Amino acid sequence: MKFSFTPEQDAFRAEARRFLTERVDVRAQIALPGAHDAALWKEMAALGWLGVALPESEGGQGLGLVDLCIVLEEAGRVLLPGPFLHHSIAGLALSRTQTGDLVPAVASGEIVATAVSDLDAPAACGSVADAVVVLRLMDPQITRPGTFTTDEIETADLTRPGARVAPTSEAEGLSAPVPLLPYASVAAAADAVGGAQGAVDMAVAYAKDRQQFDRPIGSFQAIKHKAADMLRALEAARLATYYAASAIDTGAPDAFVAAAQAKVAANDAFMRCAADNIQIHGGIGVTWEHDAHLYYRRALGDSVLFGDSAGGREVVARALFEGLPS
Description:
The protein is an alpha+beta fold.
């Protein structure tokens, strides 16, 4: 598959990076209920980001998963707190089922949606969600506004507080012609790639600035090797993620296996880059005041989000030995 970003996509990325760099204040936003900044949410809705890959007929922009991954990557890079990733996944799922009447409200941001792999899993930012989409491979469901209660719980990722969802009435089944979890896996992989990039940027900036023995620590071979390994893992994950997104957009036969590969690569890259970022920072990297631990916490959350590495490797192994799923 030949793939490259269009000039429009490059411009979209540049604008997303500018906006998010200027508007995201992680420390301030994680102090909000559900880490949800309502004012920022309205701005993102006005930019069309809440419906990037949703149909134009439903109030979205009508673009593809690749375009959504671009903005999700940039959001991950700055650790955008709140439900943006899960809201985007919920919108994708609803737009690909025969129960899509909530899609316009999702695209406009009128309602906040979140997505889970199963109702037993904590719902990210569930305390501020109006609807919860359950993306089980079999029997996907939705709990509509007013049909559930939530109880916030402590989770590793401070940027997306978890909540237990308790339906007050029976969840509604969703009729999906294709599995929904692969879409979620690729979107989560894009977020992880962005987080890994943010960790690399932080580590490199510190290595250039921190002096030991009258030299930047980035000039030492051990730091160079660590940074090079971080970059290698990051770029492999980025390539795998956009390949998978493009494969889903074009209906390639290996799309869902590529989604599993992307999630594995992104999981591993983010965990490595976040951990090595702390190592390069040394003692300051493990303090509450420094943001390095926020990247590591996000990596812990992303690593089990809509598919862990063990499950992804099993999907790939089955494809190798048994052939692509039909």
